[in-house]
Design goal:
The mean pLDDT is about 95. The protein is about 20% helix and about 40% strand. The N and C termini lie far apart (about 60 Å). Strands 1, 2, 3, 4, 5, 6 and 7 form a 7-stranded mixed β-sheet that branches. Helix 1 crosses helix 2 and helix 3 runs parallel beside helix 5. The chain folds into 2 domains: about 220 residues, PmbA/TldD superfamily (PmbA/TldD fold); about 230 residues, no CATH class. The protein has about 475 residues and is of the alpha+beta class. The chain is globular.
C-alpha cells in the first residue's frame, strides 16, 4: 500500500500533499436480556488526501484503491486548496516541518483479538449478560455490548513521512437495571483499552464487571441523597479523568485556544495547585492498555508526552503541524482523524493527572466533612472551563470515616478553580475512560484518568422523598 501512495505522490508535484490510507475493520455484538440483538462486522477503507497550496487547505477522499482514483482525489484536493487560497484575505500558514515517523508501528497486545472466534466472542457477551441477570432478584433488565476497532494505516507526505500503523481497541459495556416498588436504578460498568483481551480484562473480568453493575444498581434503590452545596470532595480516578478531559483538555487544544478558550494567554501562569501536574500522552503511561494510545499521529508525527500543567503552571497547548506553525512551537503529535474520509484535527490521546504521595485511606482519614465521588457518567463543559458532570455514586465522609452509598449527584464548577483547590493527590493511578468516544465534529478513541484527588466543588442536593 505504501508503494501505491508513493507512486501517486511522485506523479503530482508542486503542492504539499499528505496521503493517508486507512483500513478499519470493526465488530459489535449486543445482547439484551438474554437475546442476541446484533452481531455486526464492517469494513471502512479508503484514502484521505490533504493539500496545501498558496495559503489554502484542501481535502478529498476516495474509497477506490486504484492509481487512477487516487490521482483524481489528489487533483480534487489540490483544486480545493487553490480555491480556498483565492478566497482568503489572510493566507494560512504552511504545515510546520517535523521529524517524521518511518517504518511500522504496532500497538502491543496481550492475547490478540484474533485469538477468539466470532462464536467465542458471542459466547463471552451472552455469558456476561447472563451474569447480570443472575446477580440478584431485584435485577429486571440487563445488557452487554462488545465492540472492537482494528486499524491499519499507511501515511506518506511530500515532505518525508513514510509510516505504517497497526492498532486494536476492544471495549465491553455492561448495564444492569434494578427495581423496587416501582423505582428503577441502573448502573453501567465499562472497560475500553488498546491491545487484546489480556488488556481489556487486565484489571477485572467480564463477570466481575457484571456483578459490580448489578450490585450497584441494587444498592442505589435504598440509597440516600447528597446534601448540596460547596463541599470538600475526593474524586475517584474516573471522575478525575472526566474533569481533565472535558473541562481542561479541550480548552488547551490549540484550535480552541485560537478561538478564545479559557486557556488562551495563560502559558506560564498558575492555573492549578502546585500539587497538580497534568499531561496528555500518545503512550500508556504508568500502566498498560490506555484506550487512547496513538503511537504516530495522522500527520505522520511520532506522539510524545505533553506536560500541559507542571506543578500548577500552564506549560503547553496541544498541537498539530498547522497550529504549531501559528504558535511557533514544535508539533506535539495530536493530529487525529477518525476514518479515512475525515480531516485530521487537534485531539487529545490519553489525558491524566500524575499520581502524588497520599494513599486513599489517609486522604479519607484527613477529611472531616466531605464526599467520595465515584462513577463518572456524563456531562458537559464549555470553552470557559465551566463544567457540569453527573456521577453515579456518592459516599459521605464524616470525621475521617467513610459512610454508605448515596445516590449520584451533579458536580459543577470552574475546572481551573477546582484544580487550584487541590490539597491532596493520591498515590495509585488508573486509566478509566477508555470506553466510548470523544466528540469534536468526528469521534475519537481517547482515555483519561489519574489518582484520587481532594478538592472543592459544588454538588447538587436533594431532600429525602423529593
Amino acid at each position: 500500500m505504501l508503494d501505491l501512495l508513493e507512486s501517486a505522490l511522485a506523479k503530482r508535484t508542486g503542492a504539499w500533499l499528505e496521503l493517508r490510507l486507512h483500513d478499519r475493520r470493526s465488530r459489535s455484538i449486543l445482547v439484551e436480556d438474554g437475546v442476541l440483538e446484533a452481531a455486526r462486522a464492517t469494513r471502512h477503507c479508503g484514502v484521505g488526501v490533504r493539500a496545501f497550496v498558496d495559503g489554502g487547505w484542501g481535502f478529498a477522499s476516495t474509497s477506490v484503491l486504484t492509481p487512477e482514483a487516487l490521482l483524481r482525489a489528489i487533483d480534487a484536493a489540490v483544486d480545493a486548496a487553490a480555491a480556498a487560497a483565492r478566497g482568503r484575505t489572510q493566507k494560512a500558514l504552511p504545515p510546520l516541518p517535523a521529524v517524521f515517523a518511518n517504518g511500522t508501528y504496532q500497538s502491543p497486545a496481550r492475547q490478540p483479538l484474533s485469538t477468539l472466534s466470532l462464536e467465542d466472542k458471542i459466547a463471552l457477551v451472552m455469558k456476561t449478560d447472563a451474569a447480570v441477570r443472575s446477580a440478584g432478584q431485584r435485577i429486571t433488565s440487563s445488557s452487554a455490548k462488545y465492540t472492537e476497532l482494528v486499524d491499519q494505516k499507511f501515511i506518506v507526505t511530500s515532505d518525508g513521512a513514510r509510516v505504517v500503523i497497526e492498532d486494536a481497541k476492544p471495549e465491553l459495556r455492561v448495564q444492569a437495571v434494578a427495581a423496587l416498588e416501582g423505582e428503577l436504578q441502573s448502573c453501567v460498568e465499562a472497560a475500553g483499552h488498546t491491545g487484546g483481551f489480556g488488556d481489556l480484562f487486565a484489571r477485572r473480568s467480564a463477570e466481575e464487571m457484571a456483578l459490580k453493575a448489578a450490585q450497584t444498581a441494587t444498592d442505589l434503590l435504598r440509597a440516600g441523597y447528597v446534601d448540596g452545596g460547596k463541599k470538600q470532595v475526593i474524586l475517584a480516578p474516573d471522575v478525575v479523568g472526566l474533569l481533565v478531559h472535558e473541562a481542561i483538555g479541550h480548552t488547551v487544544e490549540a484550535d480552541f485556544v485560537l478561538a478564545g478558550s479559557a486557556a488562551a494567554g495563560k502559558i506560564g501562569k498558575q492555573v492549578a495547585s502546585d500539587l497538580v501536574t497534568l499531561c496528555d500522552s500518545g503512550q500508556s503511561e504508568y500502566t498498560s492498555g490506555a484506550g487512547g494510545v496513538v503511537l504516530v499521529d495522522d500527520e505522520g508525527v511520532p506522539t510524545q508526552k505533553v506536560t500541559i500543567i507542571e506543578k500548577g503552571i500552564l506549560k503547553s497547548y496541544l498541537h498539530n503541524r498547522e497550529t504549531a506553525q501559528q504558535f511557533g512551537v514544535a508539533p506535539t503529535g495530536n493530529a487525529r482523524a477518525f476514518e479515512f474520509d475525515n480531516e485530521p484535527l487537534v485531539r487529545m490521546r490519553n489525558t491524566y493527572i500524575e499520581p502524588g504521595a497520599t494513599p486513599l485511606p489517609q486522604m479519607i482519614g484527613e477529611t472531616e466533612d466531605g464526599w467520595l465521588l465515584v462513577g463518572a457518567k456524563n456531562g458537559q463543559a464549555d470553552a470557559n472551563a465551566e463544567f457540569m458532570f453527573v456521577v453515579g455514586e456518592a459516599y459521605p465522609i464524616k470525621d475521617g470515616k467513610l459512610g454508605p452509598l448515596h445516590r449520584g449527584t451533579t458536580i459543577t464548577g470552574d475546572a481551573f478553580e477546582v484544580l487550584r483547590s487541590v490539597d491532596r493527590v493520591g498515590d495509585v493511578f488508573a486509566w478509566e475512560l477508555g470506553s466510548g468516544y470523544c466528540g469534536k465534529g468526528q469521534p475519537a478513541k481517547v482515555d483519561a484518568g489519574g489518582p484520587h484527588i481532594r478538592c472543592l466543588a459544588t454538588l447538587a442536593g436533594q431532600k429525602e422523598g423529593a
